[in-house]
Amino acid sequence: MLMCRKMKKYNIIIVVSLCFLFSCNNYTEFKPVISNSENFYSTDSLKKTDYINILQVFDYYSIDYKIVNSKILINKKEYTDKELMYNFTVKMRDTLWLSTHKK
């Protein structure tokens, strides 16, 4: 009986750990995206002002994100849409858009 309880406890710990690992793997760091009119490219990490602004953009569009070790992580599937990420990058640098689109 005691052995069965211990096994059940370990099984729960393993399942919770696996769920955590899989959920972490579904996110990637957001990096600004630029375009040369034909292709989209990810750039370096966010500048300090971009960091705050992209959170406003994500909140406005209800984009799920996490902040881990001062990095903004978004869903990998969403990040593969480079055109969308480019549009978010443009908006985070557009002061007029930022001032008129607050949630």
Provide an overview of this structure:
Helices cover about 55% and strands about 15% of the residues. It is of the alpha+beta class and about 100 residues long. It has one domain (about 25-100). It has a 3-stranded antiparallel sheet. Strands 2-3 form a two-stranded antiparallel ribbon. β2 (about 35) and β3 form a beta hairpin. α2 (about 50-60) crosses α4 (about 80-90). The chain is elongated, with a radius of gyration of 19 Å. It starts with a helix and ends with a helix.
Summarize the structure.
The chain is α+β, with helices and mostly antiparallel strands. It has helices at residues 2-24, 48-60, 76-79, 82-92, 95-100; strands at 27-29, 33-35, 40-42, 65-68, 71-75.
Major beta-sheet overview: 3 strands, antiparallel
Total number of helices: 5
Mean pLDDT: 85
The total of beta strands comes to 5
Q: Structural class from helices and strands?
A: alpha+beta
Q: What is the terminal separation in angstroms?
A: 55 Å
- The general outline is elongated
As residue ranges, the low-confidence spans are none
Approximately how much helix is present in the residues? 55-70%
Q: Beta-sheet strand percentage?
A: 15-25%
Strand neighbour order, sheet with most strands = 1-5-4
Radius of gyration: 19 Å
**SSE topology string:** HEEEHEEHHH
Count of distinct structural domains? 1
